[in-house]
Amino acid sequence: MHPAPHQAPFVLGTERHGTVADAADWITAHLDDLHALRLEHGAVLLRGLPFTTADEFALLRDRIVGRPADYVEKATPRSAYGKGVFTATDVPARRRIRLHNENSYALSFPRLLVFGCLTPPTTGGETFLGDMRAITDLLPDGLVGRFADEGWTLVRNYWGYYGLTWQEAFATDDRDEVEKYAAEQGLTTSWHGDRLTTTQHRSALIRHPESGDTSWFNHVAFWSEWSLQDELRELLRGECGDDLPFRTFHGNGDPVDRATIELLNDAHEKVRTAERWQRGDLMVVDNIRLAHGREPFKGEREVLVAMGDPIDRADCEL
């Protein structure tokens, strides 16, 4: 059995700071304690910081993470503010975003995520979290064993008008650059005119490099066709056939069936927790321990994210 999931995030009221520079110095002075709380709880939310711009958020981020992490193999629309700061997502407000670990499909991924709230929404819009150590205890042993042994496979079709173009996803217009990246990252590629298909095989569970705990770490359910609303799935199948923008498979190539995806999504719902955003909130999230998602919302919502301290998958294998 894995440790019982904590109710993340741990909310920590900060001292009153007159300036962002004062707040940054306070973070530096308490950084060891903050990381100890992050390791214990998975996420720490600092409440009441005085940042009001993306540049000020970046200043605080730099006191928390050792080095920035790139957003690779992009999958969702985000607006860039510069200095490695993005909107958390530009997915429409009406849509709920399921729990996922950032870049779980890549060979290198951020160990830490830092979120900052400039403007909280009127209603909804929580960035909810889920303890991925607890997922395997909610699933049949045989299913967990299969994913542990086989891993999982992701197939992406870059249609452009359904999701991002390959140019957006890989931040280049040069096919040779895409092929170079694919060779380095273990992706197979197939070109169909201007449409690109990539296939990659990854481990489905990894070990936390600090705690040693095992985490469910993949996008198997997140990108399954069985996680889509029925109307959207039928629309995409009518337009794309079997070449959906995203498809997930067992490591041996078998499709992951609807019943399995429903089990996975149900398990994710059982570990989900959330805290309402307030202006000046800064949340540090352990991307290996916790998955994150977003509730639909109304009103203006400006929540920023930065990724840091990248780690290689090879350093986290079971």
TrEMBL record:
Residues 12-306 form the TauD/TfdA-like domain. Coiled coil: none annotated. Keywords: Antibiotic biosynthesis, Dioxygenase, Iron, Oxidoreductase. Pfam families: TauD (PF02668). It comes from the Bacteria. Its cofactor is Fe(2+). GO terms for biological process: antibiotic biosynthetic process. GO terms for molecular function: dioxygenase activity. This is TauD/TfdA family dioxygenase. The gene is orf25.
